[in-house]
Each structure stands twice: as C-alpha cells, then as structure tokens.
Amino acid sequence: xxxxxxxxxxxxxxxxxxxxxxxxxxxxxxxxxxxxxxxxxxxxxxxxxxxxxxxxxxxxxxxxxxxxxxxxx
Length: 73
Fold this sequence. Notes:
Elements: H1 9-22, H2 24-42, H3 49-67
C-alpha cells in the first residue's frame, strides 16, 4: 500500500488489520501457502528462493489489489 498510493504507515497497518479481520480464513490459508512454499524452497540450499520470491511477490500484489479498494483520483 505504501508503494501503491501516497499514504502513511499507520493507515497501511490499519488497512492490513482490517483486511485480516474481515477475511481470517483466507489470510490464514495464504500464510500457510507462503510458509510451506518458503520451507520447500530452502531445502535445495536456498536456491528455490530464486523462483519462489518473485512468484509470491507477484501473487501478493494481485491479492492486495483485490482486497483493498482502488485509490480515489
């Protein structure tokens, strides 16, 4: 959110808390996917992170756009 629009970190944190409280099952599922993917990526001497981090970053960006309403203006 800090990169997407001009806002302060307090607003970004409050938005994050609001999204988690509105969608706890989805957020726990996403946290589990991230945890398992990261653990599996670290097995081959951390080389899997080369592929995992960009994919998780891209996916997180799209999930953020769906969870947070677009900025006005």
